[in-house]
Structure formats: structure tokens, C-alpha cells
Write a structure and sequence with these properties.
Blueprint lengths: L53 E5 L1 E2 L7 E5 L2 E5 L5 E7 L1 E6 L2 E6 L2 E5 L5 E3 L5 E4 L7 E5 L6 E5 L5 E7 L1 E6 L2 E6 L2 E5 L5 E7 L1 E2 L7 E5 L6 E5 L5 E7 L1 E6 L2 E6 L2 E5 L5 E7 L1 E6 L2 E6 L6 E5 L5 E7 L1 E5 L5 E6 L6 E6 L1
Antiparallel strand pairs: 1-32, 2-3, 3-4, 4-5, 6-7, 7-8, 8-9, 10-11, 11-12, 12-13, 14-15, 15-16, 16-17, 18-19, 19-20, 20-21, 22-23, 23-24, 24-25, 26-27, 27-28, 28-29, 30-31, 31-32
Length: about 350
């Protein structure tokens, strides 16, 4: 799910982790991106309406991981399996995806990590008010309320192994975690040592050895990609830049999204009103505006393989080929799943 917070299925903390770029006013800019004239999206023969594999009966639905997906029914979150059967009844005030065998969740004042039976197995003895999924053996947690609280990292024993000292912290990926200190973003290693000093207006997590960062200020700056040595690999030239997945990254030029390779060359020209990352060879795209547009999926050639028909579409799970979709408006619609 393309968001700039930890996710809609957990207590949200505003982050510039999923992407660097927000809608920006353009001032003096680096060399312009060379693109071909955008053309209408080509539809692959056979692209048609996609039936639901799991009926649209949930008020919210997440990406499948470790065979389970978090769903909301009314005000409570639980988990379903790939058949759509409820395996952990809705009871949590928030519930995130399973990762490394556990999922972050909370009921009332109890916050921690549950196993696949729905029982809390890690409950750090800390004043945690927000937390994220485990990644590479560590999970980011915020101790203290939003304005005064700080982020650190716990291990699977619930021990705080990297002190709570960051304004914001993302999950570890490729051995590094993105953190914000005094309004600037940089990267630390798993010992808590700063390896890329905070210097960027925003920054994303590493994937495929690259991370998106924003140079200049947050509003008028441009996004590019750095390597793990902190050096710019793909020059800052995009209005928005997102993580590499399956060797491609979606970027925004003006108000259109396209996809680049790791050399920074466009392989799918900017022509979509919205595009999410590739997963399992497909990427969700939107035709039309945010309020009334429809979501479908393209392949790596940029051809439409699932016709735009949904009011929202999430990533396909790489493990089981299911993707959450919404039918109906954001506040009244229902979520189900389609199969790749």
C-alpha cells in the first residue's frame, strides 16, 4: 500500500519512508528528465474484468504475508487465511502484517507482537505508543507521545537494543534503517551507528541496494537514489521517487507516474495518474483522479493485464498471488481480494 505512514492498519506516524516525493512546486531544477511523449496505456489481449477470489466483506484489508492478512470488521482488526477464513478473530485496535513469525498489534493499553494464534508473545516493558513490523531481527518502536516521543529499536526478547533517540525511524532493510534527526534524514546500522549522516529532506528505505532521497528542501526539492555509501547513483531529478522492486522503481514527474530501471532510464514512460511498486511482475495503476479514478494492473512492459475497475488496489502478495482491492467509496466501500 502506497502511503507515507507506517500503514493504515497500525497506529499511524507520519513518515517520508515509502516515498520521498510529495506534490511539489517546481523552481530552479536539475537537468530535466528525458521522456517520450506519454501515450495511452496499451491493453494486453485478454485484459478484462477480474472476479474476486475472496468476497468484498471487509472494512479494511492488508497485504498477505506469512499466509495471513490483517482485516478490519467494524472497529476491530483480525486475520484471515488465503481462503478468506477468519483465523484470528477481530479483536485488536490495530494490527499489522506478519513478519518473521509475529505481527505488531494492540488492544487498549496492551501493545506488542502476537503469534499466529493471536496471543501476545512479545510485550516490551516500555511505554510504547507506536511500533512497526520486525525486519532483520529488529522492530522500530516509539516511546512517548507523538510530539515528545522518540524512536528506537527492540529485539525479539522485547529488549531496547538501540536507544529511543530518533524523531522518526523506519524498518531495517539491506542492513540499514532510515532515521530522522533534527528534521534531516540519514541511515544507521544495526548497532545504532550512523553510517550516512542525516542530510536529506526526506528519505526511503533501501531496497535492491538503492534508497530514494530528496535533496533541497521538502517542498521544492527533487528526488534521486543513493547507494549504501551515501553517494548519489541516480541524480535527483524526480518529483517523487519510490522503492525499487523487481528491478524497477516508480517515480513521479509532474503529476504523472512511470517506472525506471537501476540506471535511471525510463522503461515505462510517465503516463499514469498513480502507480504503485511492482510485486510478482504486476503493478497497480490508476486511471482518472483520486476520488473517481479506477485501479487496474500493468505488467513490466507497461501493458494493462487487469483492466482498471477497482476503487483501490494494493500490492500482490509475492507468496500467494492475492491482492486486496476495494469496491466502493473509501468510507463506505468493502475490501476483498483478487488472484493474479
Amino acid at each position: 500500500m502506497r502511503v507515507t505512514v507506517y500503514g493504515t492498519l497500525i497506529v499511524a506516524t507520519a513518515l517520508a519512508l515509502a516515498a520521498c516525493g510529495q506534490p511539489a512546486q517546481q523552481t530552479a531544477a536539475p537537468a530535466p528528465v528525458e521522456t517520450k511523449a506519454a501515450s495511452a496505456t496499451e491493453t494486453k489481449p485478454g485484459a478484462a474484468q477480474k472476479p474476486l477470489a475472496i468476497p468484498d466483506r471487509f472494512d479494511e484489508a492488508g497485504v498477505f504475508s506469512d499466509g495471513l492478512a490483517s482485516v478490519r470488521v467494524g472497529a476491530k482488526f483480525g486475520y484471515i487465511d488465503t481462503k478468506g477464513e477468519v483465523v484470528i478473530k477481530p479483536q485488536f485496535d490495530f494490527a499489522g502484517p506478519f513478519a518473521e513469525g509475529v505481527a505488531h498489534a494492540g488492544i487498549g493499553g496492551k501493545v506488542g507482537f502476537i503469534d499466529k494464534t493471536g496471543n501476545f508473545v512479545i510485550t516490551p516493558k516500555l511505554e510504547i505508543v507506536d511500533l512497526s513490523a520486525f525486519s532483520e531481527g529488529l522492530a522500530a518502536v516509539r516511546i512517548g507521545e507523538y510530539l515528545q516521543g522518540k524512536w528506537g529499536f527492540v529485539d525479539k526478547q522485547g529488549k531496547l537494543v538501540i536507544p529511543a533517540q530518533y524523531d522518526v525511524a523506519g524498518s531495517f532493510s539491506d542492513g540499514l534503517a532510515v532515521v530522522r534527526v533534527d528534521g534531516k534524514w540519514g541511515y544507521i546500522d544495526k548497532q545504532g551507528k550512523t553510517v550516512i549522516k542525516p542530510q536529506f529532506a526526506s528519505a526511503g528505505s533501501f531496497s535492491d541496494g538503492l534508497a530514494s532521497v530528496r535533496t533541497g528542501d521538502f517542498v521544492t526539492g527533487k528526488d534521486g537514489y543513493i547507494g549504501k555509501d551515501g553517494k548519489m547513483v541516480i541524480p535527483a531529478q524526480f518529483d517523487g521517487a519510490f522503492p525499487f522492486r523487481d528491478g524497477l522503481a516508480d517515480v513521479r514527474v509532474g503529476d504523472k507516474y512511470g517506472f525506471i530501471d537501476k540506471q535511471g532510464k525510463f522503461v515505462i514512460e510517465p503516463k499514469f495518474e498513480f502507480a504503485d511498486s511492482f510485486s510478482g511482475g504486476l503493478a497497480a495503476i490508476r486511471t482518472g483522479g483520486e476520488a473517481t479514478g479506477k485501479y487496474g494492473f500493468i505488467d513490466r512492459d507497461g501493458k494493462t493485464v487487469i483492466a482498471p475497475q477497482f476503487d483501490f488496489a494494493d500490492l500482490f502478495s509475492p507468496s500467494n498471488g492475492l491482492a486486496a482491492v476495494r469496491i466502493g467509496a473509501q468510507d463506505t466501500g468493502k475490501y476483498g481480494y483478487i488472484a493474479r
